[in-house]
Description:
The complex is a heterodimer of chains A (272) and B (304).
Chain A: H1 4-18, E1 23-31, E2 34-45, E3 48-58, E4 69-72, H2 109-130, H3 141-153, H4 158-168, H5 193-202, H6 205-222, H7 225-244, H8 253-261
Antiparallel strand pairs in A: 1-2, 2-3, 3-4
Helix pairs in contact in A: 3-6, 4-6, 7-8
Chain B: H1 4-14, H2 22-41, E1 47-52, H3 53-57, E2 67-73, H4 84-96, E3 100-103, E4 108-111, E5 118-130, E6 135-139, E7 147-150, H5 152-160, H6 165-177, H7 184-195, H8 203-217, H9 239-257, H10 262-265, H11 278-291
Parallel strand pairs in B: 2-5
Antiparallel strand pairs in B: 1-2, 3-4, 4-5, 5-6, 6-7
Helix pairs in contact in B: 6-7, 8-9
Amino acid sequence: xxxxxxxxxxxxxxxxxxxxxxxxxxxxxxxxxxxxxxxxxxxxxxxxxxxxxxxxxxxxxxxxxxxxxxxxxxxxxxxxxxxxxxxxxxxxxxxxxxxxxxxxxxxxxxxxxxxxxxxxxxxxxxxxxxxxxxxxxxxxxxxxxxxxxxxxxxxxxxxxxxxxxxxxxxxxxxxxxxxxxxxxxxxxxxxxxxxxxxxxxxxxxxxxxxxxxxxxxxxxxxxxxxxxxxxxxxxxxxxxxxxxxxxxxxxxxxxxxxxxxxxxxxxxxxxx
Amino acid sequence: xxxxxxxxxxxxxxxxxxxxxxxxxxxxxxxxxxxxxxxxxxxxxxxxxxxxxxxxxxxxxxxxxxxxxxxxxxxxxxxxxxxxxxxxxxxxxxxxxxxxxxxxxxxxxxxxxxxxxxxxxxxxxxxxxxxxxxxxxxxxxxxxxxxxxxxxxxxxxxxxxxxxxxxxxxxxxxxxxxxxxxxxxxxxxxxxxxxxxxxxxxxxxxxxxxxxxxxxxxxxxxxxxxxxxxxxxxxxxxxxxxxxxxxxxxxxxxxxxxxxxxxxxxxxxxxxxxxxxxxxxxxxxxxxxxxxxxxxxxxxxxxx
Lengths: 272, 304
């Protein structure tokens, strides 16, 4: 394991070698066991600067954060969801569960900066100029979660997505030889099993929990507090009953579907 | 090798917007159009339309220039509205025939109606309280206390006669290069507050002193609107802004310590990106986008 000094040295070497032109006046500090790097990011395109942002990068601790957290500190981008910035100032570069596509533990920070960080800020400049997102955007909250997992798993039923997330979080069991919950009439092992195992290896549990909460919040958006509590109570009951009886949740998917459809809920279309 | 002050003078020269500069001519032409639009809408109204902001204060820089056009109706002149809000909205409506008008707090930003290209022009509607002493009121959009007392003459002379316009220009470039979103007016007041006793010092000495003050004492520095002591600037000069200033001042001082001024302002001959028009920038970004295979799409978790 690298100690702090070594980690800082490694970052410094990487930035000096690979981002000399693009990341100016940077400074590395360590606060509360975390490493922060702040500096000016220049957006060079065809040898011209199309924008510049004063940013802070918080290196991941791999316990609570799994990829570098970016904050625009110069106040150029308003802290509003429409600009893909959280209220706490962190930039939302991509759907969190997708982070491994852009950052692998201990990989070089410069690659991350040249990749999603660079495209995110170029897209911000473009948005300023045109009001459009250069590479498109994910929908917010649960809708974005639904889009991400429905594309990733190629399923459109949000009940099934909830179900798969429960499986990934070991809230239910699906036997390999059972029919796949997606309704394909294929065996689970020949259908979604391997995709889900791949996701299980890539996405930390905490992130999957957040995604499940997002999916369940679909219900939150539409119903009263009492109904939400009732829904969650009933869902938990079904899950715990399944586990206690050593049944698979598949056995109860009809109960869950009924429970959700009783709420008259339909996921919003993403326009595709 | 040039000394720090020679280098800073070169930076000022390359950022100087001469009166006949293309950028200035363009916005000047637009001023005539703005004047015409308002005159056509209110031909009989007693009003004063003139330049304000950095152009009048002589602190305009190429890096980031805007032209403020003040449009103040005289005391008792009600043809464009009786209240400040009415004046603001009526001027907005009359300019909307020609421009895409983007309402700001007190000003109206003008953009090209078709392609939304920015003209770098802010029209500031208002009403004189007393024409002779220059006191006027502005409407403040979306603010509870929506009337703001101001005096452009006092602002202009306070900044223009401060003897510190060159330092202000350099600090505006520094602010822009670091992506710091600090109101230029606040930066001007801050510069004068910190350097008012140091007008005879060199540019490099003053910049260094300014950054040291920002690093060490930014929390205790208070600024006041010379035209209106009751104008609350705390929102524009808040805690997070102060923290950002402090942080980038520290970075600047690191470069000063190693005598690396280019780290702060770039190469002296560098005309930088602002010579490019937005169209050019847009085109470059679009070309870049087409060369990128799959890019991450931004997401956000809105607070509910």
